Amino acid sequence: MAKKQKFYVVWSGLTPGIYTSWTDCEAQVKGAKGAVYKAFDTREEAEQAFASAPDKFIVKMQKCKNAKMQEGKDAKMQEDRETVRPRDPEELPIYPEEVVPNALAVDAACSGNPGMMEYRGVYVGNRQQIFHFGPMFGTNNIGEFLAIVHGLALIQQKGWDLPIYSDSRNAMLWVKAKKCRTKLERNARTEPLFQLIERAEKWLREHTYTTPIMKWQTDKWGEIPADFGRK
Known about the structure:
alpha+beta; 23% strand; 3-stranded antiparallel sheet; 6 helices; globular; single chain
């Protein structure tokens, strides 16, 4: 029996578009950082999805043990720092109805403060990692600030309609003020971080956005989905 035709939408990859074979799709997403893609059964579905934000269809590129991933077979995936395999829905926390699942949650972690800092953005609905940065020497508050700005820029670039959750009041205030009010000393070690801060502040000054930035209520809902789980 001939395999049923599939249509592959690549929202983010080497060349975004609609592809009619896994081979062509794989060429666009394999090795492409932050690749976002999904297979559809009909061209009509694919065209509708490609014209929309991928927030309900996001599938991150994952590494496979074999060099080539074949359709119709269960490929065993391994996680790495850049991508996270979607978890079984039964394993996911159940949040109150007031939590918006179609949202981006951001968080930072720091080994020491200051110390080696990293941050990431996670789609709330399926806890899938959308972006990750670090580690780099810095502070947790700086990471939280940069994570929000990273999320704002990405959402605007992709045309997504998503609010952002953060559990950091300081970072939210800094973003509102368009200024990272850190007391970290600027020196040779922290210079690369301060260059990122200046880029983030410049983006805030030069762009307007309508993305809501909402406070994650940790005391009511538990840890934010983007939490690194190192407490």
